Amino acid sequence: MNYRQYFILSVLIICMHLSWAQPAFKVIPLGVKGGIDESNLSSYMIAAEGTNDYVCLDAGTLYDGIQKAIDSNLFAADARTVLRNYIKGYLISHAHLDHVAGLIINSPEDSSKNIYGLPSCLNILKEKYFTWQSWANFADDGDKPFLKKYHYVTLSPGTEQALDNTTMTVIAYPLSHGNPYESTAFLIKNNDAYLLYLGDTGADTIEISDKLLKLWQAIAPLIKAKKLKAIFIETSFPNDQPEKQLFGHLTPRLLMSEMHRLNQLTGDSLLKDIPIVITHIKPSGNNEALIKQELKTSNNLQLKLIFPQQAKLLEF
Q1: What is the pLDDT of residues 194-235, one digit of tens each?
Q2: Alpha carbons within 13 A on the beta-carbon side of 168
Q3: According to the CATH classification, is domain 24-315 in 3.30.565.10?
Q4: Long-range contacts of 74-77 (CB under 8 A, 24+ apart)
Q5: Termini Cα distance of the chain
Q6: pTM above 0.85, yes or no
């Protein structure tokens, strides 16, 4: 190999490395808490890098989070334009108010788009919220008459579904959220990259369930192949929360126990290379500081723990 050939090969290798290192997703947290601040509840806008075609992972807070993102120079448009034109649909993990209040309240100003969810979630939206007794029915099913602004798209567990008007797809996995109540994990795909978002979930040991184990088994090959870019997972309460008062949530101890199970499936300490984004901290009292300290203290896997902030861009 002569010098010219060596130089060209080196440039190609560098370019390939830079290409692999480019982010696949951008995420704008519109809300990161599990209560009690209604202006900062679970909601994350996610798009393929290089586009403004977002879907919302849950929608507890919308307008206030969008306005704060605009104030942080993440959007050059006004809040109504972002709501109507940038958000192409909603992936709702479960229908508790801290995950759907923004969707419901903003529905009169919103544009036509899809609401994606498992049947258990969509049925609650149809039967409890988008009814003419509690709110106008802006959807295309449920209580008549239908205003037909939103179209319900039922997800089947383990089946890949295109996210309309984006380049992304999603696979849904059921979670146990205070057995027998159900939540959802969403595995988002863009090209050959993946991001995992979990709605509220209890630990398998507390829920007497295998749902998290099945989820870990599903994503372990992606971690081994270095295709999974991040995991968004809740830690709602500190370790001193009694088990009977967890109501289908995680503590730092339970989270780390689940991470150890996932690490056993991946091997080679590969999990430490995956950003673990901690969501749904309940901010009552000193919970937030205590949860962060307990997570850091118990982090013997050397995980990359990220504590998202409202209206602060994340790229993976």
Answers
A1: 999 999 999 999 999 999 999 999 999 999 999 999 999 999
A2: 32
A3: no
A4: 74/28, 74/311, 74/313
A5: 37
A6: yes
